[in-house]
Amino acid sequence: MHNFMIVRSFVKWQVTELRMKIYEKMKVIMLEIKSYIEEIYSQAVLWRRHFHKYPELSNKEKKTSDLVAKHLQSLGLEVNTGVGGYGVTGLLKGSAPGPTIAFRADLDALPIQDEKDCEYRSTVPGVMHACGHDGHTAVLMSVATILAKLTHLLQGNILFIFQPAEELPPGGAQRMIEQGVLQGVEAIYGMHLWTPIPRGMVGYSDGEALAASDGFEIEIIGKGGHGGIPNEATDAVMIAAHLIVNLQSIVSRQLNPLHPGVVTVGEIQGGHAFNVIAGTCKIKGTTRSFDPQVRQELLTQVEKITTATCQMFDASYRLEVHRGYPALINHKEQSEIVKRLAQDVVGENHVLRMEPIMGSEDFAYYLQQIPGAFFFVGAGNERKQIVAPHHHPAFDIDETAMTIAIECYLKIALEHITVMKQRKGLYDSENVSLSDWLS
Ligand SMILES: [Zn+2]
Ligand SMILES: [Zn+2]
Fold this sequence. Notes:
Blueprint: H1 3-53, H2 62-74, E1 78-83, E2 87-93, E3 96-106, H3 133-148, E4 155-163, H4 172-178, E5 185-198, E6 202-204, E7 208-210, E8 212-221, E9 225-226, H5 236-247, H6 249-254, E10 261-270, E11 276-277, E12 280-289, H7 292-312, E13 316-322, E14 328-329, H8 332-346, E15 351-353, H9 363-369, E16 372-380, H10 401-417, H11 419-423, H12 434-438
Parallel strand pairs: 3-4, 3-5, 5-16, 6-15
Antiparallel strand pairs: 1-2, 2-4, 6-16, 7-14, 8-12, 8-13, 9-11, 10-12
The structure holds zinc ion (2 copies).
Binding site for Mn(2+): 131, 133, 167, 192, 391
Protein name: Amidohydrolase
């Protein structure tokens, strides 16, 4: 045999040896992780139920963030509090230097009365965790707890971001970014427990995931008068009726039908007696879109149609636009990682590609700055009658879905920054990744 061939086969043998060793090691680590998840689950439930019982509205998440900060400190993380409001960050450093990736949870509840009848029902009148953010916080606290035991495997760092005020634009994400939380962070991941998907499924999307959302308020100013003498009045309620119908022509007649958009008027207030012509009438609505140009076009058309409709009936108006969150666009590479690792966790047939949703999320701001992905972990369960949609007074989650979310995060962490990952360079020609090792 030629000398070169001998060296080559020796190197190949060495690589195979090393590969086997790492493979064996990763198998042990994954078993270890499973037992850690089983172990932490009851604590995760306790945390989630505690937050559920004592929910705090957006920008008032003081006790929630105190509890999170205390726990992260007890794990030995580098903790910052009061970041962009009641935001908390915790940096977990691996045993060797390497890249930093971030995981984000949101802390806030909603102004909704909890109508469930259960031990962990909200104790705060009119305030409720009706979106599952209590679960997100408990999941990330659990992930931090487990990874703090695995720092010997980490070549790099994990930044845990607990963000306030997701439910109330302008939201907490932008403020935390302004405080520099993303500095030096290579990629970010976020997760939503999602009851429209059954427990056991994970949803990902590799592009447009959630819409841009803006709000508008219009006050039509006419002239009040006697219900029997309309010619002497300017009927604001009648003008509002025209305006609402006219606004519906924006999507149906102005917008390119291949570009999604929504105009919804959700609130109308005008008049106070059946026989009196109302002098003013207020309407409130929201616009949704993905494309930034469509986003602007919807708002421009709202103003144009309001001006023209009021002019037609000799009324004036006041228009206020409230800019909401931009569209949440996932990055391809990170979405691919989520998809692949989620398949490891729940099986290939239980990972679904999600259609874009016209809801919105301020996680969008992080994705405008650095690569990352936002994914959905199914938390509905018809058998347990956990079927209420998000923001509903009977909302609940199947708590066992938290174990799936925890495992997804752990696999993402290990995929990015394990010692094995750094050695991956050895096998670049073979394109090895965590899921290859485990399959
Ligand atoms: Zn929500
Ligand atoms: Zn939410």
